[in-house]
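Consortium newsletter contribution from the modelling node. Members have asked for a concrete example of what our holo predictions look like. Here is one, prepared for the 9MR complex that several groups have been discussing at recent meetings.
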Amino acid sequence: MNDPNALAWDAPSLAEAFGARFRVGAAVNTWNLDPESPACAAILRQFHILTLENESKPINLQPEEGHFVFEKFDRFAAFGQANGIALRGHTLVWHGQVPMWFFEGENGAPATKDQLLSRMRTHISTVVSRYRGKIATWDVLNEVLRDEGGLRESRWYKIAGRDYIPEAFLAAHEADPDARLLINDYNLESSEAKADTMVSLVEGLLREGIPVGGVGLQMHLSLYTDLELLKKNVRKIAALRKLDSALRLEVTELDVSCYRFDDTAEDLDWTPALEEAFRTKYTELFRFYTELADEGTLDTVVFWGLSDAVSWLNGFPRRHKNYPLLIGRGWRVKPAFYDVLALAGNTEEA
Ligand code: 9MR
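And here is the predicted structure:
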């Protein structure tokens, strides 16, 4: 019987169940790595790949030019090595959580293109070479596309145009030729225009010989996500493998909100109807993931957070109680957890 009260560290392991097909992971923070903590027990039981939710972003790694702060990332790397857990590096280039000095030039003028690209290369090569051989995958570029299609008009783009994109991959590849280098984005599943831009951008980069290792699909979903459209868009992106069979997809930030993005509802209670919709959504999703894995397209699925209690979706886009993950409050695994586990085909009893 599936124990409805099982806690994440006693329940069957998602990582073990899916291990032959894909790695299962979660976004964590270094305070979760304390060996005495429940979070750590949950991690060791359930996951075999981890991402730092915030602590490896540029604003935390290089708050001032030339002043690198590696303490937390070092701790994360040591934890991975000690426990045989693979690690993802998130993220090298982003418009968010990046210190403003990157974009500032002399006397209040904006940085020149050369200045910006040189700062970018220094950041990438310093960080990636330090963790060479220790970080399996880098989200080299995060969220560089617009939902409406085309490249995001970020400060990166305004100063350097499209060139910062190939340059970032080249710098990361030089620093660790064995790491998998991804371009990572959200809403690829819900915006055809965005998915099409991803396809044409990666096609162009591959033709130019740029070492793109794959596409990260964040997959911040909701109960209202159209899964037919999701499958169609993901299939388009997966077809990039015809240009390079080594290319992989990773699901990098999975969660399923019970609110529509523009929903102004007060806190929703977890009703049987919501639970049912949640189970259906997760089952269909993981069925699709196993298909993609069996085709050799997808090899990693990472949840964005350890449990409902700590998900960013309790505070975004508004403060409201959310229930987006398979591990609920109090570390209890949900019925949907067992539905998903059953898809792996080799469930052990809790
Ligand atoms: O989960 C992260 C949250 O704690 C931060 O406040 C936020 C800052 O922008 O970033 C969140 O993580 C984001 C990730 O780095 C990139 N994709 C979207 C994630 C959710 O916003």
